Amino acid sequence: MRSKIREGLTVLFEEGPSFFIQEVLSYFYEVVYWSLQDSYTLAIQDTRVSFTAPSRTVVERNKRRFESEKRELTDLLHEIEFNDVFFDIGANTGLYTLFAAKRCPTANVVAFEPYPPNVRLLKRDIDRNGLENVDVWDVVLSNSTDTVEFNQPEQEDVGYGSGSIESEEGGSDSTVEVTAKSGDELISDGEIPIPNVVKIDVEGAEPLVVEGMENALSAPECRLVYCEIHRSDVEYRPSISDFGMALSDMKTQFEEFGFEVEELQTRGSEVFLKAHK
Question: Which of 18, 59, 63, 241 has its CA 20 to 30 A from that of 184?
Fold first, then answer.
């Protein structure tokens, strides 16, 4: 609130009373409007998902993610089968989780997301859509079971999608210790089943996830992986190079697990791979 007051005073003194009044009215319109908005719906063909609308920022962020990844999401919905086990690794607020669970209500959807504000919204929207086939793990998947430093914004930011495991080089001002789990260990302990379909989007830590799931990804049951690779083209964002890997290395790893690999789409520094058996 104090920051808003300071912003308002700055506008008043620099832009004048008329512009200040316009800004105040606009601000209160936004507050009232979003206090009355409860939800919004996104759809792909006959699959419709209802999302909570906590703020304009969250809604616009999720809609942008939906539009930019609609090709991959549509492809997933065509590929997933009704009795599949689907891992959504780096689930954020659940775009892939909710669509997959709604599309195949008898599938077993397992979502992994460590950032608490995202987890809370994801669980709320699981209830909103009446989904009973989703398990949420508030951990990061990595190559070992441990506690790790995780990048996150200093102030709560629902829908934040740039959180990642801190590399040895560091570079983030705001980190928190979170629990990391190895996918293979969770499976061998009987806590989760072997996946048939996997989606990975973990802001550069993809090599750690893959290393921790070598057995699962090599298993014949695992037939399909969607992996968003974060390259080092953008300095301020984490990438696979922070963990000693290149795009060609990631492709080779999937091929060694028995997959054929194709690039579905490239968006700036991000390359979306589809690996299938």
Answer: 241
CA distances 101 to 19, 64, 106, 109, 136, Å, are 47, 21, 8, 6, 12
The β-bridge relationship of strands 224-230 and 108-112 is unpaired
- Contact in structure between 99 and 72 (CB atoms under 8 Å): no
Tally of CA atoms within 13 A in the half-sphere of 50 that contains its CB: 11
- pTM recorded for the entire structure: 0.82
Q: Closest Cα to residue 230, out of 254, 249, 202, 211?
A: 202
Residue with tokens 């104090």: 2
Q: Which residue has the tokens 């809604």?
A: 59
Estimate to the nearest angstrom the gap between the alpha carbon of 251 and the chain centroid.
21
Do the Cβ atoms of 204 and 239 come closer than 8 Å? yes
Residues 82, 214: Cα–Cα separation, whole Å = 25
pLDDT tens for each residue of the chain, 277 residues long: 444 555 545 545 556 666 657 666 665 555 555 555 688 999 999 999 999 998 888 898 899 999 999 999 999 999 999 999 999 999 999 999 999 999 999 999 999 998 888 999 999 999 999 999 999 999 989 888 877 666 655 545 454 444 455 444 544 456 667 788 999 999 999 999 999 999 999 978 899 999 999 999 999 999 999 999 987 755 556 778 878 899 999 999 999 999 999 999 998 778 999 999 9
